[in-house]
């Protein structure tokens, strides 16, 4: 094919270019031209097949992302020597059950993690990933799954990292969030109060949490109700109280603040009575009912 590289790239992108020409461009000396062919959603299978074996990594990655790629090409690319090519397959909307099965059983931990994040994950594959040797894979499953049975199973996981994944999962039920609010790990509880809305009873119990980090997370959480934050303004730990007061000041609408040219109306300074109950000696995250 004659002409400059730019000319050939333009030809490869042109919707009017004939399939026979695209097939010819698929073997172009320039990787830029081959990548342009590989990116076409209407690229003929005859052109994509050799590009899935292309010597240039970027070209193979483009094929991996192309919805027009056949399942055979995608399965081949899952075994590619380059990790970025393998991982690109997960973003392809044409991924089917066969490909998810290969991903969930792959030696590549990242491929298993990408499978764990898929909303269409089959129950048998989810059951497999619940027992994955990698805490990272189980955490990614925990944070993305919509399956109630999977959530129940992962609530029993002994690894804190996995339960932290559940603490950001919006598909958890009120009862499951209640369990997480009682989790033995302050890291789980801190993540939970930042990510998910909780029942009033759980919030009231967490006001007494033994972990300063949990209470500080509540003080600056956008999902914590204002009346809870107001109680934290009187927390026994000054860092918690200061965080709560600072958050209120930063989130207050500008129109509610007094105009700079007008003095704020004077009000009698009334000391606020402390509302926080004394820190109990109960186990962290295990409120007394």
Automatic annotation (TrEMBL):
<dbReference type="Pfam" id="PF01816">
    <property type="entry name" value="LRV"/>
</dbReference>
<dbReference type="InterPro" id="IPR004830">
    <property type="entry name" value="LRR_variant"/>
</dbReference>
<dbReference type="InterPro" id="IPR011989">
    <property type="entry name" value="ARM-like"/>
</dbReference>
<feature type="compositionally biased region" description="Basic and acidic residues">
    <location>
        <begin position="242"/>
        <end position="255"/>
    </location>
</feature>
<dbReference type="InterPro" id="IPR016024">
    <property type="entry name" value="ARM-type_fold"/>
</dbReference>
<feature type="region of interest" description="Disordered">
    <location>
        <begin position="218"/>
        <end position="289"/>
    </location>
</feature>
<protein>
    <recommendedName>
        <fullName>Leucine rich repeat variant</fullName>
    </recommendedName>
</protein>
